[in-house]
Design a protein that fits this description.
single chain, about 1200 residues, alpha+beta, four-stranded antiparallel β-sheet, globular
């Protein structure tokens, strides 16, 4: 029994007819419930549905060249459909059959449709005139199938009268207009049928079946016919011009055979039947070579794709699309040569010259119908190692000839074979073999002798090359990098089963390809990124720049090392990438023929240059390519480079948005003038105000007529003249509040009094005049109000008003407020000066596109720097930032004197907090700098933390501990002083904040948790251990020894937290559900398997002994007692334990059966508190490495309540 290579499967009503589209990935299915479905089997989606038939639809066919579909059903009708996406509909219906229509088919050249019916006739229709042009009679029972010959003017029909008939219809082609149209329009009635029969003759009648024949078809090239019948036999017939005879029979089905096909390319027969099987037969030997069986579904119909290695089978509950053999050719690339297998020959293809020669025959390796699965090439020995999946897996080691020979030798002459499912060269004279059944990896020498046997650490399905003396092991849930010399695991990544592996040219990066995911990892598996695809991934290769290019079923795509990906081009048919060089992709198609595809790498090279800060190449691409579109602009904005997008965007609104985002007020001002909308001017004013450019703010306020804000702006910049103008404008507008504000800003007391009098506020006008010494004006106001001094003698007496506008020390009306200099942008300068105009495309170095360009970019930014200074800074965290700082000093030195004369303030340097964020990859240092957002991003990337609420008190505490506030004068705000842990450091690129929490202080908290456990305060202990794990996230380490101690502390806290949580759960179960003795015992047993210190493990074991003893599980209690004795406790405890051991030996029974096997190593799931035995699927917490069942992947870790289970994490960076 073989495994069917199923490519698509759908569930539906019984499928009675199937038809492939010749060029598009479409499959039409006729259903017993009256529907016709149109599936895209590559995407796995239902494209459309046709429901106009009344009753079951049995026949369906797609036109070989036109977008037409024909169907026939039990309603006696034949319908022709248009299947163009925008115009899917029934075009016309053909009437004429008097019973069920069984099959329909289009002619490959003529506009004919042929149909078979239960009315014992075969009809041929002209689809252009929509008339019946021939009726073939002669069968004496239902006609079950009919088919045109692929080349000749013949048709073959199968009938329930136990015969197969071959008809000659050459007369029909010779007839005027292809049929009886010559009789005049409308001549479709029965009266003309006698004329129809004259166009066709029965050439052969094939008799030999004992029961009704269900299907018959011609061979695509040979003069052969195949038939399938209810006598459970498949017969092969040969015909000549004069006669036809039976060649042989294929017997093996044990029920009616529904259909049988010739394989379009190989000498094979594929059949299906009501015995629920699909069988594959050797046409030459007439023997069954493969059988695919379904449990409950009978098969009714088969269809073969005319061009691809695809078949479809319809059964009782749907359909399947499948292959008979794997189509991915086995290949390996070495330098400029591709070694691959085609038609069971090892061939060499030279990428440079295009020469393609056969080197070695492997026809005798495994089954003749199964191609080799993998090929590994050893350039030192010029040897190939092939594997094939037949006969439960075979490998063969063979040497390739040094010279091209006229006769290609077979590998069986001097090749060495053995059993194994996966084989790969691991060194010049060593190769590794995986035996999946025994789970053993054998390392063999070139004499095929076993040198070393290795038991893999995980259940391994496939092995791949992992670097010198290393293997990549693929399991169901993870991929492991394994050192076969030291026999230890170097790294492990959670991943679906990896099918293919591709290493970059310099060996620094590796792409691990699964069915729907790609993991890009470094050579030690310590860092990785994930790309997910909804369509199946087929292959991949690295280009010269260190970008991974991969193919899916219908696209070629790219993937950058950090996970960004995009589409390069669309494919009509899948290809397998072998090499990427410049703008050419070298591929193998499904027939294993080399092909080349030219593409445009501009988009991904631009993104790569952006990623590596290679500004020269970015500028070159901008100047020489048409890299436009919303996607690239959105990408630049997302990555924080709006100033780059600004240089090649023409749309006014987009330019305005980008200019605001990168703070380019000059461009924003131009765009605002063009757009001229109030909301644009308001946003421009906000951005300009942030930068202190009050002239732009003034212009924006003027455009929006925002007079109140304009007046306040003139007050802030000390412009008395413009304030007076604003007073006149306010008077003209007649706005009393605006007049009052302007008078207040200008210090015009009389103006304020005038406004108050105008609005009738005489008391306020009087008080204003009185307190400002304007007694005469006050008396005038009093008189105008009809009052005297005596009337207001109860009004309190106020002192003189001190309200005066502050004096203008330095008028900044014509000065822009000082702001932090940003220096001249590289792109502004380069585009303005014409640098790189007509430049040469940058060369690529595999793995580092910026290898040569980085220093050139630095020179362009800071030409006056010394080479020695550049080298000294290369070890720093932010080389570009220091280079930029140097650039600021030089051009600003000259105008500094002018600014001092004008009284402007000095330009401030980089904030200490910003330096801390730049200089450290540790989350604790980012918290100390107050950059909580980047700290959270680091914790997510390094440890998978997603819940930050428990960490808020720690964040606030560390931030407060890193700063001191000093108030030198009560009238001044306090000075913020930043505390460093390296106060003697003078280089700005190396300063770091004080370490608020030390590892020693956290370990003291761990000891406190130990004391809580000893004192049976388990709830307090649980809180303490969680607190320890939270604090360890924000500890600053200074050495490898500290890092090792940190990891030990994390492990200890995790084990105690797990153990305490299990014991608390046990106590809850005992209190709330006393009858659940099984769960109580299980939790007590699991508690003893936590890695606790001996005193606490003694407590756990003694507790388990007591609980199991009460439950009469004496055998288990005795084993716990033996473990307790091994810990060497007090003699009194030892004596009690020995009593339990004796009792267990006398009465070795367990009254309660529990899920506990102490003899099989296991880990405890932190969510369900159940064992996960070795070899079972498992996911882990990326921080504590706690174990969980696979269904909890993506959930919050219930132990720490911080991290996402199974999340990808890079781990603690070695910042020291």
């Amino acid at each position: 029994m073989s495994v069917m290579l199923t490519k698509f499967e759908s569930k539906s009503n019984r499928v009675k007819g199937l038809a492939f589209h010749p060029t598009q990935p479409l499959l039409a299915a006729a259903l017993h419930n009256g529907s016709v479905q149109l599936w895209n089997y590559r995407m796995g989606v239902l494209v459309d549905r046709f429901d106009e038939h009344e009753g079951p639809v049995r026949g369906v066919a797609i036109h070989p060249t036109r977008p037409l579909l024909v169907t026939g059903g039990d309603d006696y009708k034949i319908k022709v459909w248009d299947i163009r996406p925008q115009n899917r509909r029934c075009l016309f219906t053909l009437h004429g059959h008097l019973d069920y229509v069984r099959t329909v088919q289009f002619h490959h050249e003529m506009p004919w449709i042929i149909s078979a019916s239960d009315d014992q006739t075969i009809r041929i229709w002209n689809s252009t005139s929509r008339q019946c042009i021939a009726v073939l009679t002669g069968h004496s029972h239902y006609v079950m199938s009919v088919q045109f010959h692929p080349k000749e003017d013949l048709i073959v029909s199968a009938s329930m009268d136990q015969t197969v008939r071959v008809w000659d219809i050459s007369g029909l082609r010779k007839a005027p207009n292809g049929g009886p149209q010559s009789h005049g329009p409308g001549s479709t009635g029965p009266a003309n049928f006698e004329a129809f029969d004259s166009f066709s003759t029965v050439k052969h009648v094939l008799e030999g079946h004992d029961r009704g024949v269900n299907y018959a078809m011609f061979h695509p090239t040979l003069p052969l016919i195949i038939s399938a019948a209810d006598d459970r036999v498949i017969k092969v017939w040969r015909m000549s011009e004069t006669k036809a005879w039976e060649v042989d029979s294929c017997k093996g089905h044990f029920n009616n055979v529904s259909s049988a096909l010739f394989h379009p390319k190989h000498e094979l027969i594929v059949s299906c039947g009501e015995d629920k099987t699909v069988r594959v037969w050797d046409l030459g030997k007439r023997t069954a070579i493969q059988t695919f069986r379904r449990e409950h579904d009978r098969f009714w119909v088969l269809a073969a794709h005319p061009n691809l290695n695809l078949f479809a089978a319809g059964h009782d509950s749907g359909l399947i699309v499948f292959k008979l053999e794997r189509e991915r050719p086995a290949f390996s690339v070495s330098q400029d040569t591709l070694y691959y297998v085609r038609d069971k020959y090892v061939r060499a293809y030279d990428f440079n010259s295009g020469a393609d020669i056969g080197l070695l025959s492997v026809k005798k390796l495994g089954s003749p119908y199964v191609p080799p699965r993998t090929l590994s090439f050893n350039p030192a020995e010029r040897a190939v190692l092939l594997t094939i999946s037949s006969d439960n897996g075979i490998y063969e080691l063979a040497n390739l000839p040094q010279q091209t020979q006229t006769e290609v030798k077979d590998s069986s002459v001097d090749g060495k074979r053995g059993s194994g499912q996966s084989a790969i060269f691991v060194a010049r004279n060593r190769f590794a073999i995986l035996n999946k059944t025994s789970q053993l990896i054998e390392v063999r020498d070139l004499a095929n002798t076993v040198v070393k046997s290795i038991k893999p650490p995980v259940q391994t399905n496939e092995i791949f090359y992992g670097g010198t003396a290393c293997l990549i092991l693929s399991s169901a849930t993870s991929v492991v990098l394994y050192d076969i010399q030291q026999q230890k695991t170097i790294g492990e990544i959670s991943s679906p089963p990896v099918k293919y592996v591709s290493w970059s040219g310099d060996g620094t990066l590796v792409a691990l390809m699964s069915k729907h995911t790609i993991t890009i990892a470094n050579k030690s598996f310590s860092q990785h990124s994930l790309v997910h695809e909804t369509i199946r991934i087929k292959s991949g290769a690295w280009d010269d720049a260190g970008v991974f290019i991969y193919s899916t079923l219908n696209h070629i795509k790219y993937c950058l090392s950090q996970g960004d990906n995009g589409v390069i081009c669309t494919l009509d048919n899948p290809v397998y990438l072998t090499r990427v060089k410049g703008k050419t992709v070298y591929t193998l198609d499904r027939s294993a023929r080399p092909r080349t595809i030219n593409f445009d790498p501009t988009e991904y090279r631009f993104k790569l240059a952006l990623l590596k800060n290679n500004y020269e190449e970015m500028l070159y691409i901008i100047k020489t390519s048409t890299l436009l579109g919303q996607s690239i602009i959105a990408y630049l904005q997302k990555k924080g480079f709006p100033e780059i997008a600004l240089h090649f965007v023409q749309d006014t609104n987009t330019r305005f948005e980008l200019a605001l985002e990168c703070g380019n007020l000059e461009v924003a001002m131009e765009m605002a003038k063009t757009i001229n909308r109030p909301d644009c001017w308001e946003r421009l004013a906000q951005q300009a105000l942030k930068q202190g450019n009050h002239k732009v703010v003034e212009k924006a306020y003027q455009q929006t007529k925002n007079f109140d804000k304009l007046s306040f702006l003139y007050l802030a910049v000390g412009s008395q003249d413009k304030l007076e103008k604003m007073q006149k404008i306010a008077d003209a507008r007649g706005d009393p509040m605006s007049r009052f504000h302007n008078a207040l800003y200008a210090g015009d007391v009389e103006g304020r009094i005038s406004v108050l009098r105008d609005v009738g506020l005489h008391p306020l006008a009087y008080l204003t005049a009185k307190t400002n010494g304007l007694d005469e004006l006050a008396a005038e106001i009093l008189e105008a109000a009809g009052l005297t001094e005596a009337d207001i003698d109860d009004v309190p007496t106020y002192g003189a008003s001190t309200l005066r506008p502050p004096p203008v020390v330095t008028s900044s009306t014509n000065l822009i407020w000082p702001s932090v200099s940003t220096g001249e942008n590289f792109f502004d300068k380069a585009l303005a000066n014409g640098v790189l105009e007509g430049g040469v495309e940058p060369d690529y170095v595999n793995g580092d596109a910026a290898a040569a360009g980085a220093h050139n970019a630095l020179d362009a930014w800071a030409k006056e720097e010394e080479i020695g200074e550049l080298e000294a800074e290369e070890g720093g965290w932010d080389l570009d930032a220091d280079a930029e700082a140097e650039t600021f000093d030089t051009p600003e030195a000259a105008p500094a004197e002018e600014e001092e004369e004008l009284g402007a303030g000095a330009t401030p340097g980089v904030s200490e907090k910003d330096l801390w964020v730049r200089n450290s990859p540790l989350a604790a240092d980012h918290v100390a700098a107050g950059s909580f957002e980047t700290a959270m991003q680091l914790l997510t990337r390094q440890f998978g933390v997603v819940n930050f609420a428990p960490l808020k008190p720690l964040f606030v505490s560390i931030y407060r501990s890193s700063h001191v506030y000093l108030s030198p004068l009560a009238s001044l705000p306090p000075l913020e002083l930043h505390l460093r842990r390296n106060p003697t450091e003078s280089s700005a690129s190396k300063v770091l904040p004080i370490a608020a929490r030390s590892l020693q202080s956290v370990r003291s908290e761990l000891l406190e948790g130990y004391r809580f456990v000893s004192g049976n305060k388990l709830t307090e202990a649980q809180v303490a251990f969680r607190s320890v794990l939270e604090a360890l996230l924000l500890v600053v380490l200074t050495s490898d020894d500290e890092a090792k101690l940190w990891r030990e502390t994390v492990t200890a806290a995790r084990e105690y937290l797990l153990g305490v949580t299990i014991e608390l759960e046990r106590r809850r179960v005992a209190a709330e559900d006393p009858s659940n003795v099984t769960r109580n015992l299980e939790l007590a047993a699991y508690f003893t398997h936590c890695q606790l210190q001996p005193p606490h493990l003694q407590i756990a074991l003694r507790s388990a002994i007591s609980i199991f003893g009460k439950a009469n599980n004496h055998a288990h209690a005795a084993r716990f007692a033996k473990r307790l004795v091994e810990l060497k406790p007090d003699p009194k405890i030892v004596a009690q334990a020995r009593q339990k051991i004796s009792a267990g030996e006398r009465n070795p029974i367990n009254s309660v059966t529990i899920a506990y096997d102490e003899f099989t190593p296991f880990e405890i799931c932190g969510a369900t508190y159940t064992p996960i035995y070795r070899g079972s699927p498992i996911v882990r917490c990326p921080y504590t490495d706690a174990a969980f069942q696979p269904q909890f992947k993506g959930n919050l870790d219930p132990l720490t309540q911080l991290t996402e289970i199974g999340a990808a994490a890079s781990g603690l960076p070695a910042a020291w």
